[in-house]
């Protein structure tokens, strides 16, 4: 009995140590970035480094917010991310409903193609996407970002929502079908209300992907007024020297909407990640 109890205690101790190490590993870069954002330029490269600034200042935040067009870039990213997120959640939920609740020829093949699409690196699609955007007249415009953000995120979010929709009892569909409800009514009045955790999870992933996207926006946007926030932050880095306090302050500002979104939907986010993996 003592041996069994000792093994159990040792097992728990190892788990907590590993969790502690993982937590510190994930939190330390953010803590260092936050600390550096409150340091004056002369203290940024101090040795040994300190996580607690000896003379904290908000000058980096003031400079970042007063930088030309920074507020405009923030609004550009927000508008693109909000519109893209709404379309991604709507279209991916429709596709997931069709794959899990409807029966039509080629359903399995189409779902397999979507899963295969998840294995293709997005950077490999930059050139064909650029040529397509050029032919469609979508270059150098914020609305031109939205279709490509939506298309890039549809596969993953459809796969994510499909796992959740499969767990909804089909008896509920059959009951509504007996009452004369068609596919659209069952999707809108039954599936979506029962899928709030999964929809919140998909919304967070979609917003994060659109908000932080850099490569495609840098490729297609040339107009200064059309730049998004990641491009603005990248431009804060100088060719010969960089004020890392300023860069980190701007990065903290860019993280705030993500943190707010996660805090609001945290309960749904955790439930959405776990429920799709459980089968009744």
The largest β sheet comes out as: none
Strand content: under 5%
N- to C-terminal separation? 36 Å
SSE arrangement, N to C: HHHHHHHHHHHHH
The helix count comes to 13
Task: Describe the overall structure.
It contains 13 helices and no strands. The protein is an all-alpha fold. The protein starts with a helix and ends in a 5-residue tail after the last helix. 28% of the residues are buried. The model is unreliable at 276-280 (pLDDT under 50).
Question: Which key features would you list for this structure?
Answer:
mainly alpha, 13 helices
Short description:
This protein is mainly alpha-helical and 280 residues long. Helices cover 72% and strands 0% of the residues.
Any chance you could write out the topology, listing elements then pairs?
Blueprint (H helix, E strand, L loop, with lengths): L1 H36 L21 H8 L3 H32 L5 H11 L8 H11 L8 H21 L4 H9 L4 H12 L1 H17 L2 H6 L8 H7 L8 H21 L1 H10 L5
